[in-house]
Amino acid sequence: MLSFENDYSEGAHEAVLQRLMETNRVQQVGYGEDEYCRQAKEKIRAACGDPDADIFFIVGGTQTNMTVIDALLSGVEGVVSATTGHVNVHEAGAIEYTGHKVLTVPEHEGKMDAGELNAFLQGFFADPTHSHMVYPGAVYISHPTEYGTLYSKAELTALSRVCRERGIPLFLDGARLGYGLMSRETDVTLGDIAALCDVFYIGGTKVGALCGEAVVFPRHGAPDRFITHVKQHGAMVAKGRLLGVQFDALFTDNLYFDISRHAIDMAEKLKQGFAARGYRFFLDSPTNQQFIILPNAEMRRLESRVRFSYWGPCGEDSSVVRFATSWATTEENIDRLMAILDEATQR
Amino acid sequence: MLSFENDYSEGAHEAVLQRLMETNRVQQVGYGEDEYCRQAKEKIRAACGDPDADIFFIVGGTQTNMTVIDALLSGVEGVVSATTGHVNVHEAGAIEYTGHKVLTVPEHEGKMDAGELNAFLQGFFADPTHSHMVYPGAVYISHPTEYGTLYSKAELTALSRVCRERGIPLFLDGARLGYGLMSRETDVTLGDIAALCDVFYIGGTKVGALCGEAVVFPRHGAPDRFITHVKQHGAMVAKGRLLGVQFDALFTDNLYFDISRHAIDMAEKLKQGFAARGYRFFLDSPTNQQFIILPNAEMRRLESRVRFSYWGPCGEDSSVVRFATSWATTEENIDRLMAILDEATQR
Amino acid sequence: MLSFENDYSEGAHEAVLQRLMETNRVQQVGYGEDEYCRQAKEKIRAACGDPDADIFFIVGGTQTNMTVIDALLSGVEGVVSATTGHVNVHEAGAIEYTGHKVLTVPEHEGKMDAGELNAFLQGFFADPTHSHMVYPGAVYISHPTEYGTLYSKAELTALSRVCRERGIPLFLDGARLGYGLMSRETDVTLGDIAALCDVFYIGGTKVGALCGEAVVFPRHGAPDRFITHVKQHGAMVAKGRLLGVQFDALFTDNLYFDISRHAIDMAEKLKQGFAARGYRFFLDSPTNQQFIILPNAEMRRLESRVRFSYWGPCGEDSSVVRFATSWATTEENIDRLMAILDEATQR
Amino acid sequence: MLSFENDYSEGAHEAVLQRLMETNRVQQVGYGEDEYCRQAKEKIRAACGDPDADIFFIVGGTQTNMTVIDALLSGVEGVVSATTGHVNVHEAGAIEYTGHKVLTVPEHEGKMDAGELNAFLQGFFADPTHSHMVYPGAVYISHPTEYGTLYSKAELTALSRVCRERGIPLFLDGARLGYGLMSRETDVTLGDIAALCDVFYIGGTKVGALCGEAVVFPRHGAPDRFITHVKQHGAMVAKGRLLGVQFDALFTDNLYFDISRHAIDMAEKLKQGFAARGYRFFLDSPTNQQFIILPNAEMRRLESRVRFSYWGPCGEDSSVVRFATSWATTEENIDRLMAILDEATQR
């Protein structure tokens, strides 16, 4: 069945698979010390414009979030997140599992506001009882957010400034970073992110790889003994080459950016298709996740012909659903979706 | 450089890669609910002779150990391991990180003795202060062990009996299970393991896969909400298909067992080559890891021409080193190694 | 300086100290197995009307909350609390430290609403992604709340019903339980609490003891090996007698209830004094904590003559402050406070 | 029944109780910020000869160990202890519960050897795989040990030197510190301990107080935000005065040392009594815990008339048992014990 359920429904981009085939029998050392990891790191450093960046490859997103956040925080610190942050909702308590509280600030279409963050931090340190409370020790944002929205360069700069004034590291979850960087409506570059954040990751799983996220600590900023933290959290793979080869392929000949742009092109086509048919959007997303409001009866009719994600109720009779494109989405499938919509409407 | 450093120096068996290519663009749902995972589980159930086994795929070994052990134990329980157990030494404290103590019993060439385990458990419950101590809540063994040795069926049965008398689950770490099952000197089958253990895993990373371990809870024995434990420990991959496709390939047409047997054949050839040249062995290993005693001067000469693992000192002037074969080892490489040994000796 | 800062500014009721003196040299076994603990438990069981209650004595409140909640929950579960719950704010992340998330529902003058709790639980289990989320595994309420307010018997019954329908234990934090039970406006008895809750504690530290909280699991409901949980959390004292003797004294001749009623009488006198002088209250508290709104200038004048707690800003120019009475508050001190208020106003 | 079971069978020294009575109604602030804590800290600083020592009062020993060790360690570090260390055996896994491994070195009558510690640390850092292992981040010793034995000044100096060469803090558990300092066979003073250790605690629970341990970080060495660690571990009491008053009394007019010397005098009398009657000792303890070897038949006869602790079997027919004296032991009770021994022997 046709699927727009998420951006991880297929395997990997063929160039990635090709590179895995070519390198398959070359013997390499384990645990990320191999030649492919080395090459991939160099290419990512170049793409970030930071020759001093410390880079690590980790298999998945939740694993990355819990390992990075736990390594950043001291025992009495927690991480500040918007209420809708992935770490606060959909990671089964992985952060708390590492012993740290997720401290929440309000969300605005999935984003955190620098002024509200500043007020939260000021309020905390002004509270005479704060030594009985969890100290804010890191700030977590996602870009694109869980709602597909993006920070502007001005917004990201403001968040970075608030964090630096307090000496609190800013961590950007880039599970879908390629789709954010290639959005038609962004003014934020990979170099900006490296300059403004203290740690971020470049998502591979949702952008062309079989698995893998590249964690970047700009300016030699990795926590002490980070590799042991990675091992302790079960986040180290014996065949580190699996991640190195993939990121090497993704950062060769602009592949990561080209396939991300393709996903954006497909999202725009999908968006226009829905809009042209009079559908309402839950919010205006400039990336590969599109949130549509569907009457429940229509939602149920569509479900039998195409897969998408249920997001939540919208009033009494409607629901918010998500259609996601990706590097793998074909124009043909968008056309098939539109045909299904037309047929569903006629009925 | 020629390498016998470990059993994860290459990528994956070509049949596994081939299957990844073939299925690459088929859309599937995420998080292990896909068709390939379903098929792979059926094949593993058949191989285990247990149609009721609960099966989960996890990326790596440390991750599997910490997730399974933590899910098995209550808050006041620890896991019993031989002192040389991987969970006690080389996982950077991952078990303690989940809040549980590793309780140790002596090791005998890497193995735990059922009588000593029984004495430990009796001693614990007989101690009038035991409510102030960590309760033994699970038993961890590896097969093959960290020293390449194997439990006999009688030994495994005795361990299983001690555990069942106490109602304590027995967990077998099978990171190299294929090499154990295909050893020329074993009387233990996969069906025996499923019958005698309460949970075990079938290692993929070291036996032909890019990554992945198959966790088996025989007789519908999975802990309640195990999937949420997996997510919480960061051990769930979005593209669960990556693991399903690989295990599906490995358990098709006996591939897992055939490539394991090949590694054993190569290990026997390597073993005979060393023996014929008068080298001493640290212990007699019937599997793919061979532990050789080398004079330090010779070890240093060899290091420049072939990679192997340093295991520890052996007296004043010698060391124990490990040579590992795998599914990927070629006869040609064994011959090259022997030629290197001959040249090194002549010098 | 005169203090209404909290309800733990003095030592212990003299009858408690007297009993410590009398029993001081009698040799007893350690860790709560002594004769005084045994007697105290019997008296508490009688007061609760539950001869089958399991009872444990723990030194302090945060310690009690973290030990009880952690023992109640499985690894993937969290505790539901109102946003203002002590466990969510003022315990320095002690619950998260034990690996569990605090899941929040709205507060209403410090209280949780049974309908909102039910909606939260329904929403959780209806969410198709809930296996990627923290399961609600216990419900935490305080009575009196952090705002001095009380649940009615109907409200408590409704919460209990919601919990029992879901098989989720209800935990009542009774750090100030005596002051709740002796309020002039309550219809809830100790027996009601034992009947409606699955675990609660009777606060000693704030109600006449030097230290100590009595944890009650009605109907033999203590978690398995709870004593080992207590030890593991560092919550077991060698001289358990210290807690046993105190609770024995408090539950002899109605002392706990009598001194609690005295605190309420003092609170009513204080409340009338403030009201008669035209002060506004932040909310109407029927217990020993009274929340007054003070213009900031007046607050600063008062601070030099009497101690009270700052609670937070109230508009631009005023603040909410707390005045607490206790078993130790004298009428004379209330009169002195009123005189200070009068003088401050005249200036 | 007469008891030599432990050193916490009675309440508190009468001078301590007296001081609690005298100060009972004086209003003080909470959480250890009171006047009595301040005075007690000054007196302890003077006794340690370190005017810059950071001092904190915590209720019990396990709580102190877990809070201090967890605050000292980073996430990937563990604590080194002799195998018999209290933290390794009798704290129900409290250290592991905080996420840290207890790394063990051999014990010699309960003591750690500086040479073996050094070899352990050297071996760790020399191991090429150590980044996959738990880093040693602190060293834990007890003085007196769990076997009543003491480090000499030379031994303690050697341990301190090994730790300082590696930059690893040395933590001394002084649950029975008074009895060590007043031993007739020690050359270690409180000032030596403050000079040689990075943190230690002065036990109150077993030396004259109802409860309480004084944690000392010499030379302003407390970890950042230690008070929040204390709160998070549930180790902070609202009525901090309870601990301040007691330590103030204990460190007034040499009380702590005088009552400790009394316990030693009683231990010597007990020891001579056993020796004179031909009993064998398990080891030669210079402090208040004496370990006697009893034939099992005699042990059972004695059990009906006097309480002592069972320590473990000693060959087929005998057992090791412990008789403890304390500040509260009377000469009369020693005489009664000897009379019981004589009667038991005659039968």
Q: What class would the helix/strand composition of chain A place it in? A: alpha/beta
CATH topology of the largest domain in chain A: Aspartate Aminotransferase, domain 2
Number of helices of chain A: 14
Strand content of chain A: 15-25%
CATH architecture of the largest domain in chain A: 3-Layer(aba) Sandwich
Describe the structure.
- The structure is a homotetramer of 347-residue chains.
- With 347 residues, chain A is of the alpha/beta class.
- The first copy, chain A, has 14 helices and 13 strands.
- In chain A, strands 2-8-7-6-5-3-4 form a seven-stranded mixed beta sheet, with helices on both faces.
- In chain A, helix 7 links the parallel strand 5 and strand 6 (170-173).
- In chain A, helix 6 packs parallel to helix 7 (153-166).
- Chain A is globular.
- The two termini of chain A are 20 Å apart.
- At the A-B interface, strand 1, helix 1, helix 3 and helix 10 of A face strand 1, helix 1, helix 3 and helix 10 of B.
